[in-house]
Design a protein that fits this description.
disordered C terminus; 64% helix; two-stranded antiparallel sheet; mainly alpha
């Protein structure tokens, strides 16, 4: 309502002023040089209006012409933004598919469209390194070193190139240099510990990684625990660092038995069985520093009690308890555990143990329906897949550290806790 009244008042005032001027146009004479210009107020107003309009139009035109390069540039930037986003999408697909050639192409496009040095150079460096193109990797590494924000990345890249060249001494020297600059960096400390481990310098390996705190990183804590134990530290402190180390668990079991704390060793096995599912753990328990048959019977009773809740989790438990019963000279019980293992899951260990039991007891005989059995499982390196009969910290083939895995580790069924399904006691709908 106020706007309407305001518009009406302005219209009335302007109309009154226009009528007043038209009734009193007056006369205006302008003498300029030898020219005489005669007009009235209305004519002069029209001239001023036209001049003002011309000036405005002139400045608008100049502004438009001046902004042409900026608009062209903006249009090109919009086009580059669209093309760059498409390249980023393609890059994500290339990473997922592992298409290295397409990765390199799209990395170059991102550099072209976004004028980005750091991201594109890092991608090009990684692609060159994965393609074993060390010359290109060195070229991109030099570019990374000129980018202030890429200081840390270029440091890591420097080490990666040295490792790719298999120049261990150079990599070690670079890591020691960068550790002074990035004191608590996990990646640098871990790589340093791995290189010392390859040289079997356990103490130096432990010193390089002991300050790192990463409780949720199982691989790292396992590496720390192994180096702590191998460097001669207290084995019980080692197992506090990580319970995911096979070597530390075996050594802790041996130490408990040496200290005549057999029940603690059994509880340690019970607590950590799900991490390994390996018969060698129980075999160590029943054989290490064994005194006599009475000692063997005592250990057998303890391990049967400890592994009772794990009995149905895997065939590896049944085989382990069969070994324990055999060691304690309880032939029938040993046979019972072996018979509980489905025939299709038998391997050479099961067959050989059954044969030994049959030799000890004339009442027992080998099953008639026994076909060819699988070979005995062996430790394997997750990096190069080479197999070993015994666990070792450093793979002899590829020099990978802490990379050996027991094949039965994933072949285990955990008993479901009732809280995982809180409505299990309700009737099914």
């Amino acid at each position: 309502m106020f706007k309407i009244v305001k518009f009406f008042l302005i219209t009335v005032i302007l109309s009154y002023f226009a009528v007043w001027i038209s009734n009193r146009p007056g006369k205006i004479r302008i003498v300029w040089e030898e020219y005489l210009i005669e007009t009235n107020v209305i004519g002069l107003s029209v001239v001023f209006f036209l001049i003002l309009l011309s000036i405005i139009l002139f400045f608008v035109l100049v502004s438009k012409v001046k902004n042409i390069p900026e608009k062209v540039s903006f249009s090109q930037k919009e086009k580059n933004l669209v093309l760059g986003n498409e390249s980023l999408d393609d890059l994500a697909i290339n990473l997922f598919l592992g298409d290295r050639e397409a990765l390199e192409k799209n990395s170059r496009r991102i550099k072209k469209y976004f004028k980005n040095e750091m991201f594109s150079t890092v991608m090009l460096f990684n692609t060159a390194l994965s393609n074993n193109n060390l010359d290109d990797a060195q070229k991109y590494l030099k570019i990374l070193k000129t980018i202030p924000k890429a200081s840390y990345i270029s440091s890591r890249a420097d080490v990666m190139v040295a490792l790719k060249e298999n120049n261990i001494d150079k990599a070690l020297s670079l890591l020691l240099e960068y550790r002074n600059k990035y004191d608590n960096d996990t990646w640098i400390s871990e790589k340093l510990a791995i290189l010392y481990s390859q040289k079997k310098e356990w103490e130096l390996g432990w010193e390089s990684i002991k300050k790192i705190k990463a409780p949720n990183n199982k691989l790292l804590t396992s590496l720390q625990a192994n180096l702590h134990a191998l460097s001669g530290k207290n084995i019980f402190d080692s197992i506090k660092i990580s319970e995911n180390s096979f070597h530390v668990l075996i050594e802790a079991i041996k130490q408990f038995i040496t200290n005549d704390e057999i029940s603690k060793a059994a509880k340690l096995i019970e607590k950590n069985w799900f991490n390994f599912n390996c018969s060698e753990i129980i075999e160590t328990f029943i054989k290490h520093n064994l005194k006599n048959n009475a000692d063997s019977l005592k250990r057998h009773k303890l391990i049967v009690k400890a592994m009772k809740k794990h009995l149905n989790s895997s065939d590896e438990v049944r085989l382990s308890l069969a070994m324990s019963a055999y060691q304690a000279k309880i032939w029938g019980e040993s046979q019972k555990y072996l018979d509980d293992i489905p025939r299709e899951n038998w391997d050479e260990r099961t067959k050989n143990l059954y044969e030994e039991i049959c030799k000890k007891s004339e009442k027992l005989s080998m099953p008639n329906d026994l076909n060819d059995v699988s070979p005995s499982p062996e430790w394997y390196c997750i990096s190069c897949k080479i197999r070993y009969k015994q666990w070792q910290f450093v793979c002899e083939e590829c020099k990978a550290v802490n990379s050996l895995k027991w094949p039965k580790a994933n072949n285990i069924t955990k008993k479901r806790f009732f809280l995982e399904n809180p409505f299990r006691h309700f009737p099914k709908m």
